[in-house]
């Protein structure tokens, strides 16, 4: 019998990559669809029979319990979240209900209906805020600076407490930014590559962005789901930082993206304070040596390659 | 007249704080939940002096109404599912009230009266598996219960609304504080109530959890003074409030029973059913910052506190 996995947020970027990977490995996958399924169903059509979609919502305990009961999973991957940091200030309550208390509901459902399931929680490097040390690793103190990050810190601590209190095989992946052509358009990377393609194709003339000097550690989502899967194949649960270890500014991202289609970003990018966050974290750089050592993980796609892949995908989509 | 809104006014801290503020000439409003059984015994003597407003931290609209009606200069958020042991059994409710509830209240303040000063009852349980001893304002958090996890969330969201929205919001990281008004589910009150019952021949033994658990206990009447002082500062900040002394449950028993001329060893039984799934380690607070900046000295010693509680229970049960 194939191994069964339950994935929340299955139609999102990470859910999609992970689903493809698990189906290729022969898993039977149960997915909880988010509010914006997009092109997920089309993309997954070829796997009919081993992919099942379940209607559930992390804000509704009964539906979460039913999803765990129906899927009887060996592995649970929790990607469902209100995933925009910027929006979390205007939507702190929904963000918390899903990203914090929603994880609690899922853990309670697992405890009740599938206590032997292995659990992955998508924790976020945003929890480190303006970290006192750089790069950040598993022992860096948590100092969240947005409602999004505070909710993610809640979930991180809760996973550790449930692991300790109830012996759940529950692991946190402390994920640094990871991008791909499937990244949604409200994220700066995708906003840039979409903008580059539109400008190149004459659909748009300028691109308005926030702080160009923000520095981030960006990797390729397709590489990061490898690390996620590996975490649940370990004998014991643990917490792992997943990061590229390199940092680049938004400006550098623009430079590479525009020059990939023969344009100069300085002629098209406008800095607009409207996109500045109430509080911004300045530098995030991850140290994934534990994941590399223990899981044997290494990312395959570099920064320039990632940017080029995203620009090409947007050119093809819009062209 | 200065106006204050207290959530959790029917609790131990709420009742002491209401007394303090009334003495200072405040107009006091208290948020109370509708309950089928009365829960006003701690504020019975204040009912004609305070204005009670019906509301609940899990209901956003009720908090907006409460802010609108009371127009407070100071808001003290003391409401919580405050019993650590129950937070494993009612984890979702604990998250809804102790984590999300803080955001709802801050949102109500931001909408209705953003110049209100805000006090958040943070907790030493946030330190959980302590990373250093004694614990100060800069000790990293490692919560171990759903209660501790939710309180960490409340702490950070308070800090975040201070930094993001310029609200005068302070955290008091209070170590255990007890009094004759402590709820009977807390170990200190369970001991003094039990000792008094045994003295009066109403019971023959007292079943407790881990007698070697060590805590930093102070008097609640002393601690509410600190809450008030925090909100009188020009700038909001975070303060540890602690006695700085630690004692074991065993020592508490010793003093309590000997106050009544009894030997605790003849009556106290350690029952593993009362052990927590994950026990916090040595909680020992360093409140030098509060003592320096707020000019605070606790008035009641450990022995005085235990004896005050025993005397009160003996008097209550003898009636």
What does this molecule look like?
The complex is a heterodimer of chains A (319) and B (319). Chain A has 319 residues and is an alpha/beta fold. Chain A has helices at 13-24, 40-44, 61-71, 87-90, 92-113, 147-166, 188-200, 221-231, 250-260, 289-295, 303-318, and strands at 4-8, 28-32, 51-54, 75-78, 118-124, 169-175, 178-179, 207-209, 215-216, 219-220, 239-242, 248-249, 269-271. Helices cover 41% and strands 16% of the residues of chain A. In chain A, strands 3-2-1-4-5-6-11 form a seven-stranded parallel sheet, sandwiched between helices. A two-stranded parallel ribbon of chain A has the order 7-10. Chain A has a two-stranded parallel sheet with strand order 8-13. Chain A is globular and about 55 Å long. The N and C termini of chain A lie far apart (44 Å). In chain A, 54% of the residues are buried. The model of chain A has no long low-confidence stretch (mean pLDDT 93). In chain B, helix 4 runs parallel beside helix 5 and helix 6 packs parallel to helix 8. By secondary structure, chain B is of the alpha/beta class. Classes of the chains: A alpha/beta (319), B alpha/beta (319). The interface between A and B is medium-sized, with 30 and 31 residues.
* Uncertain residue segments of chain A: none
Number of helices of chain B: 10
Number of strands of chain B: 13
- Biggest sheet descriptor of chain A: 7 strands, parallel
Spatial order of the strands in the main sheet of chain A? 3-2-1-4-5-6-11
Shape of chain A: globular
CATH-defined superfamily of the largest domain in chain A: NAD(P)-binding Rossmann-like Domain
**Chain pair forming the biggest interface:** A-B, 30 and 31 residues
């Amino acid at each position: 019998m194939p191994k069964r996995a339950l994935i929340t947020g299955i139609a999102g970027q990470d859910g999609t990559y992970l689903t493809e990977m698990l189906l290729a490995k022969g898993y039977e996958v149960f997915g909880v669809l988010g509010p914006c399924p997009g092109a997920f169903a089309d993309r997954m059509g070829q796997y009919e029979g081993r992919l099942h979609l379940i209607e559930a919502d992390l804000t509704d305990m009964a539906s979460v319990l039913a999803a765990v009961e129906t899927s009887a999973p060996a592995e649970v991957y929790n990607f469902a979240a209100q995933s925009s940091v910027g929006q979390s200030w205007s939507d702190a309550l929904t963000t918390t209900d899903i990203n914090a208390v929603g994880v609690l509901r899922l853990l309670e459902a697992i405890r009740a209906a599938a206590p032997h399931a292995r659990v992955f929680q998508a924790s976020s490097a945003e929890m480190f805020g303006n970290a006192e040390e750089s790069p950040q690793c598993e022992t860096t103190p948590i100092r969240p600076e947005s409602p999004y990050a505070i909710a993610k810190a809640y979930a991180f601590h809760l996973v550790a407490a449930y692991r300790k209190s109830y012996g759940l095989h529950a692991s946190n992946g402390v994920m640094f930014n990871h991008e791909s052509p499937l990244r949604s358009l409200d994220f700066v990377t995708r906003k840039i590559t979409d903008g580059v393609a539109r400008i190149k194709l004459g659909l748009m003339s300028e691109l308005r962005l926030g702080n160009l000097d923000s520095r981030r550690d960006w990797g390729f989502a397709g590489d990061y789901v490898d690390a996620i899967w590996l975490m649940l194949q370990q004998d014991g649960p643990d917490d792992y930082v997943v990061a590229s270890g390199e940092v680049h500014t938004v400006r550098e991202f623009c430079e590479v993206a525009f020059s990939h289609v023969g344009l100069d970003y300085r002629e098209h990018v406008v800095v607009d304070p409207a996109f500045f966050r109430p509080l911004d974290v300045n530098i995030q750089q991850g140290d994934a040596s534990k994941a590399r050592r223990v899981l044997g993980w290494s990312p395959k796609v570099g920064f320039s390659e990632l940017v080029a892949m995203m620009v090409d995908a947007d050119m093809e989509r819009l062209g | 007249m200065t106006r204050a809104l207290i959530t959790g006014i029917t609790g131990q801290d709420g009742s002491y704080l209401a007394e303090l503020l009334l003495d200072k000439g405040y107009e006091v409003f208290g948020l109370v939940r509708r309950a089928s059984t009365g829960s006003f015994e701690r504020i019975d003597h204040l009912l004609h002096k305070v204005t009670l407003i019906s509301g609940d931290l899990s209901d956003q609209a009720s908090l907006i109404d409460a802010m609108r009606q009371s127009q407070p200069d100071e808001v003290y958020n003391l409401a919580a599912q405050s019993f650590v042991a129950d937070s494993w059994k009612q984890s979702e409710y604990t998250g809804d009230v102790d984590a999300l509830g803080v955001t709802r209240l801050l949102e109500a303040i931001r909408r209705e009266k953003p110049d209100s000063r805000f006090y958040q009852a943070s907790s030493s349980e946030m330190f959980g598996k302590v990373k250093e001893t004694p614990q100060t304002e800069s000790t990293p958090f490692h919560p171990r219960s759903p209660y501790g996890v939710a309180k960490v969330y409340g702490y950070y969201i308070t800090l975040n609304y201070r930094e993001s929205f310029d609200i005068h919001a302070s955290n008091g990281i209070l170590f255990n504080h007890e009094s004759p008004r402590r709820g009977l589910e807390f170990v200190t009150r369970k001991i003094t109530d039990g000792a008094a019952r045994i003295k009066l021949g109403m019971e023959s033994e007292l079943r407790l959890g881990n007698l070697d658990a060590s805590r930093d206990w102070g008097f609640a009447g002393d601690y509410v003074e600190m809450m008030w002082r925090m909100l009188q500062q020009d700038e909001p900040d975070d303060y540890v409030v602690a006695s700085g002394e630690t004692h074991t449950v065993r020592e508490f028993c010793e003093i309590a029973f000997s106050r009544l001329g009894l030997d605790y060893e003849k009556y106290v039984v350690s029952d593993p059913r009362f052990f927590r799934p994950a026990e916090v380690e040595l909680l020992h607070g360093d409140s030098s910052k509060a003592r320096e900046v707020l000019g605070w000295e606790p008035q009641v010693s450990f022995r005085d506190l235990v004896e005050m509680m025993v005397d009160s229970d003996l008097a209550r049960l003898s009636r």
